[in-house]
Amino acid sequence: MSELFSHVLEAGDEGRKLEHILRTRFHFSQKLLRQLKDGERVWLDGRFVYLNTCGLAGQRLTVDIANRETGLLTPEDLPVSVLYEDDCYLAVNKPAGQIVHPNAKYPAGSLGNAVAHYWRRKGEDRVFRPTSRLDRDTSGIVLIALNRYAQQQLGWRSKQGTTEKLYLGLVSGVPSPETGLWDQPLGFHPGGGTRRAVRADGQEARTGFRLRASYGNYSLVEFTLLTGRTHQIRAHAAAAGHPLLGDDMYGGSREFMPRQALHAFSYRFPHPLTGRPVHVTAPLPDDMAALVPSDRRFVCPQVKKSSLGCPP
Fold first, then answer.
1. 183 catalytic residue (yes or no)
2. 130: Cβ contacts below 8 Å, ≥ 6 apart
3. 37 has a pLDDT exceeding 80
4. Which of 11, 54, 72, 225 has its CA 20 to 30 A from that of 291?
């Protein structure tokens, strides 16, 4: 299936340049619009046109949003657990212990290297565009945009509050109240390093939480990220007196877990081309599932690989 955006012009579109329609109605970024001027990538009723063209109601506007860049990451033959895939997005289940993108400290073995190899096996050469990142020891869903339009649209929809990312964590003790909002700004910890702390001069940070089950000295909690700060859930949970199990950076005990017990298990978003809702889920990893009785694992429904094609 080709990567094409399609829209039938309406009466209100008449007299307006196609560039204006794409920017104001469909939130194409200026950078993406500039790229569309390179080559024949915009058509009206199948005929190539420039972005300064004005169309008539009933005409079909088609835009080629396919990736025109080549990947820069070295492919590595590593496992990739695909949860969802269409012509715009790839969602994978990242294991704990793997970084999302290579860096100076971890130059190889990243999720990006693994996905580059997955694409190479399919005969594809793409830029690795994760729409969000997980800490190395956090497991779960990483959603990857397959072109600049898909990345830009998801970012815009996130700002509009039409996407939802949910996490599951095992925390020390039992939160009280059981449901609420941690609305506390976060900044660098006075002790330095990458650790964050609640501080008045920090960035706005809001995390919703809901108790799902308690097991005596630890609990299963669902978290909703309403902002996206570094270590947000980890720092907020610690500030509330309920650090994640295994998260020794924030005071969590490693008695039951060798890493922070945090898993990105659900991602909902409207598809930017069809408007249809997409829901991706990832089951609890074995180390966390071992601490949750089997009859309570309903919080992570069985994953089914989905396919939602971008319409021609």
1. no
2. 100, 101, 111, 112, 142, 143, 144, 145
3. no
4. 225
